[in-house]
Design goal:
The structure is a homodimer of 250-residue chains. Helices cover 33% and strands 26% of the residues of chain A. Chain A is α+β, with helices and mostly antiparallel strands and 250 residues long. The longest helix of chain A is centred in the middle third of the chain and has 23 residues.
């Protein structure tokens, strides 16, 4: 059983020490359909020569920056799976963490996992908007993540996006209840780089221009807490009447 | 600006050492409408004779068991207010914590706050179901609360209720991702006392009977983790297409 509507697949090819190396991946998943069945599955393969422990290290980091940063409805599945298989056919010198080649491999793997993760969000059940929520200037990493996740999971924020409303009061509210360190008078909020809030108050940007951003199927929301160096990004969606209809059972 | 559709008010009268004492309360709130305005307001009055510190103690406990246990959409307002005023007109002996009279006052106050809290949930924006989520048998208080809140805030669980679907797989899933100590094979789930899950698997109860429970406007979901002594209750709602429509802006 699946509610996927598009194929989610990607492959990249790059060079390591004169050898061509490939990473390919496929994924399925479009919401937490049925907890008795696997819901998000991702199978990755590579022909790189790499030890198991090093492969696990690269994959863990990559998943942290991709599949662990997406949310459709906040309902995690208990059955999510990401597998990465390497057969060594590329014949490169075995990859060692800390080397330039390892970094190149990591970057390619990150591209594959992030691409697949985004495909899952975009094909999410009842999704009409794909939104990148970026938090900058947080006091620390944990605050950056909590702030981004609070905005990305807020029912009210997501309903506003569904309705094409560049509502920033609800974003401020989610930041407030997330419990992170913030000073309201320092907060800036942008829609696709257009300033909606400057220093905690409405900017001079005409509302109509902000509405045009939110009318699109994809846009970015950036929150700058202007307090510290930490940042975090979450990929999320709107909350639509279609989502509710798809999940109201039978 | 308010989206309240009903009056939320209650008054009780009881006796303390031969004196009639009264507690009255009014509240407003039906969802987090606009973060720039107060959204949940509650004003309580009593004619009891009671010191400020003791009154605060009684109120804090009471709020913990009422307004802090309700959720409509998981979006806290930053402007919620509960005020309790006492003028001492009842002429009772000043209430002292730890006495029987204090317990009686606490019980009356709890009745007032819980009644008002339930009225707010029932009148929530786009609410078609009022659901009491009770978790029993948790290893400790913190687990009981996390488990109950995970179920009460799950978009998927709430969508199922909106559709009249006594879905228990989604409840198991929410319990699973809540991170609390649990053993799937020990979990029992009941809808209004009717067993849906026994020891982690579907019970013998005919599905049609469970559907009849969820068809009602009010019902109770009880989860017994059968692991320890702790319990917690949250009052919540379904997630309806009307909720999304009411909150999609402008």
């Amino acid at each position: 059983m699946t509610s996927d509507t598009v194929r989610k697949e990607i492959a990249v090819e790059f060079e390591l020490g004169g050898r061509r190396v490939r990473i390919g991946g496929i994924a399925k998943g479009a919401g937490m359909i049925d907890p008795n069945m696997a819901t998000m599955l991702c199978f990755l393969t590579t022909d790189a020569v790499i030890e198991k422990a090093q492969l696990q290290q690269a994959l863990s980091l990559s998943v942290e920056h991709s599949f662990n940063r997406i949310t459709v409805d906040g309902d995690m599945s208990t059955n999510d799976t990401v597998l990465l298989l390497a057969n060594g056919a590329a014949g490169n010198v075995a990859l060692q963490a800390g080397t330039e080649d390892f970094t190149r491999f990591q970057r390619a793997l990150d591209h594959v996992t992030l691409s697949l993760a985004k495909m899952i969000v975009e094909d999410g059940e009842g999704v009409t908007k794909f939104v990148e929520v970026q938090v900058l200037g947080a006091a620390n990493f944990s605050d950056a993540r909590r702030a981004a996740e609070a905005v990305a999971k807020s029912c009210l924020v997501k309903c506003a996006w569904f309705g094409g409303d560049p509502n920033w009061g609800r974003i401020m509210d989610a930041l407030g209840y997330s419990g992170v360190r913030m000073r309201e008078e320092l907060v800036d909020i942008f829609y696709d780089g257009l300033c909606a809030v400057k220093g905690g108050v409405a900017s001079q940007t005409p509302f109509q221009r902000l509405k045009e951003v939110v009318a699109a199927k994809r846009f970015q929301v950036t929150v700058n807490l202007n307090l510290g160096p930490a940042e975090y990004t979450v990929f999320t969606t709107d909350l639509s009447t279609q989502y509710v209809e798809l999940n109201m059972g039978e």
